[in-house]
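# nightly structure sweep
# worker-07 picked up a monomer target from the shared queue
# config: single-sequence mode, recycle default, output format = structure tokens
# input follows
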Amino acid sequence: MLSGEMAAAITQGVQGLKGCGTTIKHFACNNQEDNRIHSNTVISERVLREIYLKGFEIAVIKSQPMSMMTSYNLINGVHAANNFDLCTKLARNEWDFKGLIMTDWYTTINGPDCTASGCMRAGNDIVMPGVPLDLENLRRELNEGTLSVNDLKKCVCRLVETVWKS
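# output follows
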């Protein structure tokens, strides 16, 4: 609760200045630095919501930060950046998060189970920093129809909205 209240207050202060915004991170369950790219937080929904997500929930609902950055780790076997339930169902639909969601840097180069298209389908708007393999993955999945143009347009719209705000 304390981290959420502090993040909300800081976000409100920073975003009270025209053109300034905050990025809250690492969403979510980023519990360790060592091997965090391959760590898997196996956790019940109750513990996830009551302990690990509460700070993010308070910050989003009270202050609408300009952006959020997903974490490297897996949560119950799914990379946070490829986690539709976390990024879209929870943050966007349940908490009404309006900002931009981005991946942590080089999230997609650590194995085939976290792809740029998977990040976009999950609700990330930007894959940071973007590597040639990400572009190939996006083009291939757009051509195959496994990534919809509509999903990509939503990402572009949120990116443009963020640029206008800043």
